[in-house]
Amino acid sequence: MLRALPDDGKRYEIVRGELLVTPSPSWTHQLAVKRLLVQLDTYLRSTRRAEVLVSPADVELETDSIVQPDVFVVPRVDGRTPRRWDDAGRLLLAVEILSTSSARGDRIVKRRLYQEHDVAEYWIVDLDARFFERWRPGDERPEILTERLEWRDAPEVAPLVIELQPYFTEVLEG
């Protein structure tokens, strides 16, 4: 039924029967996605273990839940880029850029879904407060990051380091 909804510029997601509807993203939101995508893509091209993508993309973690994370990372399959969600099968990282209309869905509904499906990390980027929330499967509270974020797609590789203040300055002040 979700796929039958109109193509009207809004983002439709469903989590366990709850329909989440958000308007088209703002310019600043899209810039935040772009800046993060570039850093993740550069890093993942060097490790060659995973791929980063952006929505719109239907990520089906369970039969009654289809989400569209702003940015997400999936593992490569047999050294190749997956061509379908069924091939990837799991998320290594999901990222949402927070907006007023998406706060409840991102911080509560989708976070719980990602944690229950053992998504290794879930980041919520709060542009207004200039911090990242990092959630892991067993967390009851997020780690709040204001200076730098380190992430790796496998324990044996060097981490991606994102300096957060320059990131926010680039996104918000151009």
Protein topology:
Elements: E1 11-15, E2 18-22, H1 27-47, E3 50-54, E4 59-62, E5 65-67, E6 71-75, H2 85-88, E7 93-97, H3 103-116, E8 121-126, E9 131-135, E10 143-145, E11 148-151, E12 160-163, H4 164-173
Parallel strand pairs: 7-8
Antiparallel strand pairs: 1-2, 1-5, 3-6, 4-5, 6-7, 8-9, 9-10, 11-12
In the CATH scheme, the class would be: Alpha Beta
What is the helix fraction of residues, given as a range? 25-40%
String of helices and strands: EEHEEEEHEHEEEEEH
Number of domains: 1
How would you write the strand order of the largest sheet? 3-6-7-8-9-10
Please give the largest β-sheet. 6 strands, mixed
Q: Detail the poorly predicted runs.
A: none
- The class by helix and strand makeup works out as alpha+beta
Question: Treating each run of at least 4 consecutive H or I residues as one helix, how many helices?
Answer: 4
Distance between termini?
A: 40 Å
Characterise the protein shown here.
- By secondary structure, this protein is α+β, with helices and mostly antiparallel strands.
- The protein has one domain: tt1808, chain A (Alpha-Beta Complex).
- It has helices at 27-47, 85-88, 103-116, 164-173; strands spanning 11-15, 18-22, 50-54, 59-62, 65-67, 71-75, 93-97, 121-126, 131-135, 143-145, 148-151, 160-163.
- The strands form three sheets. The chain has a six-stranded mixed beta sheet, sandwiched between helices. The chain has a four-stranded antiparallel beta sheet with strand order 2-1-5-4, with helices on one face. Strands 11-12 form a two-stranded antiparallel ribbon.
- Strand 9 (131-135) and strand 10 form a beta hairpin.
- The longest helix is centred in the first third of the chain and has 21 residues, at 27-47.
- It is globular.
